[in-house]
Design brief:
The longest helix is centred in the first third of the chain and has 12 residues. This protein is an alpha+beta fold and 88 residues long. The protein is built from three helices and four strands. 31% of the residues lie in helices and 19% in strands. The protein has a single domain, classed as Glutaredoxin. A hairpin with a 2-residue loop joins strand 3 and strand 4. Helix 1 runs parallel beside helix 3. The N and C termini lie far apart (31 Å).
């Protein structure tokens, strides 16, 4: 199961959401209200000690940082539409 913690209107969150949609992956979205500083709540800091969104939880494995999340999705789900070309 994929669960993505995200806030808006951050491009970082939107980039991960776009990648998940592009790959056709089912996921649960957890909205983090950045205006209320919810990313600094103890329950979220336990997920991402940096207190930043987005964060991806894939069956208990936590991945943070937009680029790393998207690279992870590409490697973890090779049978889905690719996010990058096969050759540089």
């Amino acid at each position: 199961m994929l669960k993505v913690s995200q806030g808006e209107p951050l491009i970082n969150s939107l980039t991960v959401l776009a990648a998940l949609k592009e790959k056709g992956l089912q996921f649960e979205s957890v909205y983090i209200d950045l205006r209320k500083f919810a990313q600094h709540e103890p329950w979220y800091v336990a997920i991402n000690p940096d207190g930043q969104v987005p964060a991806l939880d894939h069956d208990g494995a936590i991945i943070t940082h937009t680029t790393v999340i998207n690279e992870y999705l590409e490697d973890a789900f090779p049978g889905t539409p690719p996010l990058r070309p096969k050759t540089p």
